[in-house]
Design a protein that fits this description.
With 438 residues, this protein is of the alpha/beta class. The radius of gyration is 22 Å and the shape is globular.
Length: 438
């Protein structure tokens, strides 16, 4: 999950955050020129497109930053392919000073190839009377590894993505009172919905990462956070034959063979099934915390977004997914210093509140505002005592797209059984690791 992050209309707040004053004071507002007298500027390739709510928050921050520091920010609003463009650019002289993206995409693009810069300067930058690093909740850093080989942070996160089982609380007030907490309770709910002649689960089958989220979460539910990553790291592939892994695959098979998934999901084109769910043609959807902003423009009148955590299995692991979206700086950046200053600048409460209220995402700052649509997910994150990442942090080059997600589609589409799946993964993974550089 996490391939689609977008939003809908919003309005800008008018309060001016103290962070700008601190930055201005730190530079005496005179640091806008280099020693040669030329204007200072840096280049930012953004994952957002013009008009998206996150882009509008960032555009506000850019305007404020330029006014308060005199440093020009040359932004290219490239959209989700910004990191695809970055990878070949790293071998040229046309390298941006700042990029942003989800953790799972930044790792293979920059970190795995050791082309990311340590961002100690950004973490030490004063923001709202604190340092930027102290504004990032330590509980997430226990799971999300953003330290490079030298122990320096390579990422400055500005929002958190999670996932949940979404539903319309106006249609299902009983779920708000008593949501299913275990897998058996979840299946019982699906059976009741099906018995009533309704469709239990919507799924956009062409988004392979969404499909794999069921299995990856179930493996984490059975093995605990880090379990799937340990399985995927096994160079022999035999870890896929673990009974707990087979049990997770059988639960996916149960969803497929039980007829709980919406008709046509195998051949759907995103966001067709998502639209059907938002219009009451399916009752539940397991998806990311971006789902309300993505679907708001076509949701049925009176649709009330609500969610509950993915159910636990008999193993009892109940971690919540938590991933970072944030900034990274390539090693070849010409102006890494100013790029880091801007990365820290976005942690100012003015912009974090705007991310929560207007962009309707989950800000990284614990004290930032959130929207009503995010209330259930934010509450679950606040109450969780452990966390896991998308794909449990598995981000080996090509592994998800070419191996795990591709093979999972065969299971999710009912083409192979759970037993066939784990045995095929064992062989395919052994080949994958054999082909990787030592």
């Amino acid at each position: 999950m996490g391939t689609h992050i977008s939003g809908h209309r919003w309005q800008l707040p008018v309060a001016l955050g103290a962070v700008g004053v601190l930055l201005c004071a730190a530079t005496a507002c005179s640091g806008a020129t280099s020693s040669s007298g030329s204007s200072r500027q840096f280049t930012y390739w953004s994952m957002w497109k013009e008009g998206e709510p996150q882009q509008k928050v960032l555009a506000l921050a850019v305007t404020d930053f330029e006014k308060q520091t005199g440093i020009k920010v040359k932004v290219q609003w490239q959209g989700r392919n910004n990191l695809q463009k970055l990878v070949p650019a790293l071998n040229t002289n046309n390298v941006p000073d700042l990029v942003d993206g989800p953790y799972v995409k930044l790792v293979p693009a920059l970190v795995a190839t050791q082309q990311s810069l340590g961002l100690t300067s950004a973490f030490d930058t004063e923001v709202d009377g604190s340092t930027a690093g102290k504004l990032i909740p330590a509980k997430y850093l226990k799971t999300i590894d953003i330290d490079d080989a030298a122990g320096r942070p390579w990422m400055v996160p500005y929002s958190i993505t999670s996932d949940a089982v979404w539903y319309d609380a106006a249609a299902h007030p009983e779920l708000r009172r008593d949501p299913p907490r275990t897998w058996d309770e979840f299946i019982a709910l699906l059976d009741r919905i099906k018995k009533d002649g309704r469709t239990p689960l919507a799924a956009d089958g062409d988004v392979t990462g969404y499909n794999a989220a069921f299995l990856s979460t179930l493996i984490v539910r059975n093995l605990g956070p880090g379990g799937l990553k340990k399985v995927a790291s096994d160079r022999t592939g035999k870890a896929w034959l673990d009974p707990a892994v087979l049990d997770a695959a059988k639960k996916v098979e149960q969803l497929v063979r039980g007829g709980y998934l919406i008709d046509g999901y195998k051949a759907s084109k995103w966001p067709a099934e998502q639209q059907k769910w938002a219009n009451g043609k399916a009752e539940l959807m397991f998806n990311g915390s971006w789902l309300p902003t993505e679907s708001a423009t076509y949701a049925a009148k009176g649709f009330t977004y609500a969610a509950f955590p993915f159910p636990v299995t008999a193993a009892g692991h109940s971690s919540m997914r938590a991933d970072f979206v944030g900034f990274a700086v390539p090693k070849k950046a010409d102006d890494a210093k100013d790029a880091q200053r801007f990365a820290a600048f976005l942690l100012g409460k003015k912009y974090q509140d705007a991310m929560g209220r207007q962009a309707k995402v989950i800000p990284v700052r614990a004290d930032a505002a959130t929207s009503p649509e995010m209330a259930d997910v934010k509450k679950a994150l606040d109450q969780a005592d452990s966390f896991h990442q998308q794909n449990d942090g598995v981000a080996f080059p090509g592994y998800n797209e070419k191996l795990f997600w591709a093979k999972d589609d065969e299971l999710f589409f009912g083409k192979i059984s759970a037993e066939e799946f784990v045995h095929q993964m064992q062989g395919a993974q052994a080949t994958y690791w054999k082909d990787q550089p030592q």
